[in-house]
Amino acid sequence: MGDVYADPDVISRLLSESRTWAFVGLGDNPAREVYNQARLLQRRGKRIIPVHPSGNAVLGEQAYTSLADVPDASEVDVVGVYRRAEHAGAVVDEAIAAGAKAVWMPLDVIDEAAARRAKDAGLDVVMDRCPAVEWSRRH
């Protein structure tokens, strides 16, 4: 993989210029890493959209059961793919179909084929990086 999906300029732009992040896999369990990442970005002024099969509100935000159910999904700047790597490709395909602008796959979520599909569709892609770590490096 190298650093092809860890371009510092893309990471900086997504962290500084994005407004809306849809977190796929974000449920109401504060013990999960996705919860901590969403809360961090929310505290940094980002709007978060929880996407989880339960549909339960998280961090004061209405949740949706899939990206396809998110109203105006094309206004989502970044889709955080907080699912196991074997499920990441399906989420990336949903992000592409929804018109999202970028996908971010956190540490250990690696799917080269999905990343290529997203890139080929014109999305920015970050893979195998932690938003919190990257935020602390840039701010």
From TrEMBL:
Top-rank taxon, per record: Bacteria
Transmembrane segments: none
Signal sequence annotation: none
Domain CoA-binding: 14-109
Name this polypeptide is given: CoA-binding protein
Organism: Actinomadura montaniterrae
